[in-house]
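Re: weekly structure request thread

Next one in the queue (269 aa):
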Amino acid sequence: MNITAAVGAWEKAARNLRPDVACVQRLLTDAAMRLGRPELDPGGIDGLILRPPRVSTTVKAIRAFQVLSGISVDGRVDPGGRTWQHLVGAVASPVANSATGTACFPFALAAVADWLHAPRSFGARRSGGRRAHAGCDLYAPVGRAIHAVKAGTVLRDPYDFYAETDALEIDHGDFILRYGEIQPGCTLRRGDQVTGGQIIARVGRLVGIDVPSAMLHLEMYAGTAEGPLSVREPAMSARSPDGVPFMRRRDLMDPTPYLNAWRTRLAVR
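Done, posted below.
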């Protein structure tokens, strides 16, 4: 299965041949159902993509899928390209087997609230709508143990993150996770190896801000870019499908489908 020419945004020189568009629309529809992500639904399979200034729901769905997958967001699917490969893979398996088969939820107990709704969800608006939330917030009591979701390597020493909490970055092979808003005092250091389910940190106390709960702020990256995970300039940032910057590195991924897959596989206490 493949397409013969680029599908997507007309302004990105996509050819949008009707059979190709219908193929991409079918894949997006299937991905939306498998992943439980309605923003991936193109709104029907008709083989057509609206031209600007009208808004194409298919192009919007392509961009949403690119954000989810940590791919550069251009609203275009090329034959055999990265977006195509990820889309076909998502339909074959909602979350890659290598990511789910041996992975566990980062807590031994369920989170206090889901990570699917604002303000906890990926992409929820921050800073008056000028920034998008770059991770999922898993509400939990201060001090709750945080477990490595699978084996990996610590990328850097724990560091100051937000409101007197720290963060820890671990390369898990298929993805990188930033475990944010953890208690200071984590003893792991750059180069340390962790095992799946190992206690790596504890939920920190946020100081100086008014929040409903303490939390683990979990960010996910594809590992296809280099440099710090947080960026200072919007031009260097990953963006939401509607163009709002996350102020994070461009290989940022949405951890929601992974957490949805891991939620019944709690870490062992």
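The radius of gyration is 19 Å. Residues 18-35 form the longest helix (18 residues).
Next request, please.
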